[in-house]
Amino acid sequence: MSGFGMSKEGVSSVRPPLLTGDNYSLWKGKMEAYICQIHDRAWMAVEDGYAPPMMIPTDGGEEVLKPKAQWSPQEFIDSMWNNKAIHAIRCVVSENQYKLIQITRIAKEAWDILEVAHEGTEVVKDSKLQVLQTRFETIRMEEHEHFNDFQVRLMDIVNQSHQLGDPYSDRRIKQKIMRSLPERFEPKVTALEENDTYKEMKPSEVIRRLLAYESRKATTSPPKKKKDITLKTSKMEEEEDDSYEDIALIAKGFKKFLNLQKSGYGSKGNDFKKKKTTIKNVKPYHEMSSREKIQCYECGGFRHISKDCANLEDEREEVATSSDSDEEVVAKFLALGLDLEEDMPTAG
Q1: SS3 assignment, position 17
Q2: CA dist., res. 8 & res. 20, Å (int)
Q3: What is the SS3 assignment for 302?
Q4: Is residue 16 helix, strand or coil?
Q5: What's the rounded Cα separation, in Å, for the pair 70 and 64?
Q6: Residues 234 and 210 in one domain
Q7: Residues in domain CCHC-type (predicted)?
Q8: Number of separate domains in the chain
């Protein structure tokens, strides 16, 4: 009987998984346990094999199968356990896997056929073991990984190696666990290694204690602030805004400086003096008419007021032509800085 039309698990209450081709390592271990719970004699038929009763014809010649009518009670019992084992195997394989063992009636032959099909010959096994050994040596628990998830990954490698005939000792598994944990487990690792009973501990006991430690840490550690990233981002943005504002203020000041230079309020160096208006043929004040006594507060001249002053008109024109946005001023200011830097004489 094959597993055709069945669910992906067998018919027993133990329900071993259905062998589909890519789950052989898991299937092999569970199938062994399944056949053993049927009876130890059934598993012996898989391990040691079974040979149907044979007989030599009365007229001589080669051995032939012994008719069941002539079987002894023990031969019936041996055949029964072989039949139970081969039946169990056939019930938990997919249609494609069943085709590999369809013609055999011996449980050991079926088991060996599936083993070679999925594990390969000794050369293939050695190659797989080398890959597993590399995985075992390089596996590490990630910083934010739960210990249970790491344990599953590690024990999967250990179990596959065991299935291929290369089991790891308890001591090696313990060492691997203790050397693969992140820094947050350091206090517990130290405490375990200093424990007088550590050498006698099984890997399962070490795993149990580490799971308990992680669970306690999870309940006692303060919750992480969800706003940490948001606050950091906001702070960075504020710093960028402040930097831009500083540049803008400097640029505005520089812009005013240029305007003052153009309007005559600045000269060479840092000498900011208001330009003087030269007035030729100015009469003494007591000889001036009333109109002539009108004085401009912009340039200090006479005969006009400040709003009609030519100097102020020049300033207005310069301001009108200097209406760049803050962004343009900053860009021009930075460009000017680069130009001045290039024009500076180099040392030597």
Answers
A1: strand
A2: 9
A3: strand
A4: coil
A5: 13
A6: no
A7: 296-309
A8: 3
